[in-house]
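Anyone? Bumping this.
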Amino acid sequence: MRVETAFARSRAEDRAALVGYLPAGFPTLADSIKAVDIMIDHGADVIELGLPYSDPVMDGPAIQKAADRALAAGFRTRQVFEVTEAVAGRVPILVMTYWNLVERYGVDRFARDFAAAGGAGLITPDLIPDEAGEWIAASDAHDLDRVFLVAPSSTEERIASTVAACRGFVYAQSVMGVTGARAATSAAAPELVRRTRAHTDLPIGVGLGVRSGDQAAEIGAYGDAVIVGSAIVNCYLDTEDIPSGHQRLAELTADLAAGVRR
Amino acid sequence: MPDPDPSGHWGEFGGRFVPEALISALEELEAAHAESQGDPAFLAELDRLGREYGNLPSPLYLAERLSEETGVEVWLKREDLNHTGAHKIRNVLGQALLTKRMGKTRIIAETGAGQHGVASATAAAYFGLECTVYMGEEDTRRQALNVARMRLLGAEVVPVTTGSRTLKDAMNEALREWVASVDHTHYLIGSVGGPHPFPMLVRDYCRGIGDEARAQFLERTGTLPDVVAACVGGGSNAMGIFTAFLGDEDVRLYGFEAGGDGYDTGRHAATITAGQVGVLHGARTFVLQDEDGQTIESHSISAGLDYPGVGPEHAHLAATGRAAYEPVDDAEAMAALEKLARTEGIICAIESAHGLAGALRLAKSLEPGSRVLVNLSGRGDKDMGNVVEYFGFEGEPNAKGEDA
């Protein structure tokens, strides 16, 4: 299922889509599948599975810790396909990954296996279109979405060339900084969405920092998707007890889903 | 040859594998660097700084007793005599001057054992820039003296507690911090790694090593060396001395990587010898990585070489065969360090001892009288803790007249 399916529905309901992020293999492999089901049950429109990496330069402490925990438990790249296969079908499943892991697996091989598992596409935070020739070819060959990032510091030229390479949606990194839940979202975000919209009809997702339904409502007023990561991860980092993490995730997702419907 | 293509690649290596948020800063840096390299006033100022403050040019020294023992002429480029004790002063002075030119007021830097951190803090003090240094938490404990130096120089030292808490994690943290502060902060990277234009820029500031050495060698001998050798961690001192000789086809270039406990043990930092092509810290290069592409921790007695990546231009020189790269293990390096101390009265850095050890090993297969130029990239004061431990110098010295 490609992401346009989800955006068609959220647009029809005149609201932003809710995108939930969780590293595959966290808090455990089985519980990451369970957590994705919980997010979908409580109103997530799109799921981003993170691929745990040893050197996640764009992530703040919460997601780093989650990735470290998954890796320490022996997570392997190929297991992201297992998770994808287990949860695909109800909503589009994207993988968000640092580029070395895909390159090491083999770019075309990764695209093939991910598409076979039912995946929708990749979000690539450290791959800019300028370096993405092999991925663009593989995503075309295997009919996958490719989501690149724009940032407040992007020039008009770069926004134009980046959105031209995107398929599915565009990821607007709303603050100059790493991932992490913040009390206040960025004032730069609406401006970035406005600048990006001038160059594309693709939906624009806004990420980095969202942790509540109120923030989701605020972002949903101008963005086409509200992306939530660290706040979701924190449901499990703050407790040793996974079932209560699941409970917190259900409550958080419901709050966020209500937020995008306000 | 030496410059990468306009998109920052040497062959398949290099490039920009970083978040989009950093691209405009990299473009700004690239433009500022190109402009400054064409500005006689900037180059004159950097040259003056090098001479008056950095103690440059460094001497070229024929190590006669060592040469006698070895059977080849061993020439040392004495970067150990530079201000702050290593070639690194060249890089930090260049980048700090460029920071001022770009109108930025703050630098951040990563450091392993603290040498690049001390050099960065030094340049920041000189130019009146704010300075924050990221250092693995483990290293801040092991290298307390360097932490004290940085603090005395006015820098803030931030212990990094993420990941493996080593140099690579300090670099991750510096990159994270840079994204958040890029409008007024320059990332003063410590080696010829990272996204374009850093590998080229750091090389340009370090290439004085080879430019000076080549001219000094010609002046002293009327010819060029047969072999140029240097240690390679990230590879700034090696690119610094190699660059001037890249066009001299008869000059063989050798980079010596840290073989750690021994190449066969798997506990080493021999990135080119043992790594596979991948992406780390913004560039495509050789990386020590597992089957999935997760970075593997490197090991070396030398903190300055203990890094699981290598500059992309080195990867290119290795792939094209222009330079050869071989591992030198801890024991071989420490033996060379001791030998240099006892034959020449020079205590070099353990990093530099890897380059020397490799050159001495290579000398056995060279024609007698061949000329070998070694970049003695730094001095060993910082390493005395390791030296005491390695050679067992702890405890009371032998009493006078008593046999050892």
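Late reply, but here is one note on the structure posted above: Chain A has a mean pLDDT of 95.
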